Amino acid sequence: MRFATQRLMLCAAFALATALPMAAQADATWTASACISNCAESGDPAPNVSYSAYSAAINTTNGAYVSTGTFAASTLAFYSGGGFGVTAPSGDAQSPNHALDNYGYQDLILLKFDDLVKLTQVKIGWSQYDSDISVLAYTGNTSGVNVASTITGKTASTLTGSGWSLVGSYADLVTGTNKAVNSQGVSSSWWIITAYNSQLGGAPTGADGTTSGLTRGLGTSYAGYDFVKLYSVSGTATTTRQNVPEPATLALSAMALLGVAGVRRQRRQRQGERAQD
């Protein structure tokens, strides 16, 4: 009797386990396309992403880069084969300024996922002059927070005081080649990809105006400025997969649980009969 009860309980546990939600991790790649809102990735099921752009005017003194102004919503543009670029409010539509760049305006692209994602790679589909980027993750509390309020009105140097953290700055990305990022393994729902800006952190490793290492432009020409188009990001998404119980699974669970109850009821009856004898 004891072994019969144990078998029934194991059957019930197995059936219920297959019916409960399960946590899963899946590698995925989100590729730029004409879609900018609730865009799906290629690969296994994972969170969707929405893209948006912001720009801030770059302040210069005597033709040299000094700092950035405050960010405001900008225009995200998709270029087939290249990826996403950004067109700032004025004087920024021509090539190469319509890229994700730091010449005239500091441009950034916000990736807003509907679940936690650990980014691992960034790929650009086009670059000119230089190709350094910075990657930030939002590490503050997202509950009840409008993501636009963490960017709009902020400067490059104050973003990190509004919940954003620098994940890393990466030099000389190669078009069409994945660049490994986020060696710390940070997970976040909100990510920023931007042309390199030393105000965000990450000390320059090359001379201003050069194209080797993390460098800044000099303000007098395109030399040393970064112009890229964001082609894709890859990473690991932690999702909750809701397994809908099939009728057979539910029936098995119910039968197993009823069997356990019946066995226990019979045992109590027999114990009562023996007590009366």
From TrEMBL:
| InterPro entries (UniProt xref) | Ice-binding_C, Xrt_dep_XDP1
Pfam families under this entry? PEP-CTERM
Give the highest taxon in the source lineage.
Bacteria
Q: Where is the Ice-binding protein C-terminal domain?
A: 244-265
Region forming the signal peptide: 1-26
Listed A to Z, the keywords are: Signal
Protein name as it appears in the record: Ice-binding protein C-terminal domain-containing protein
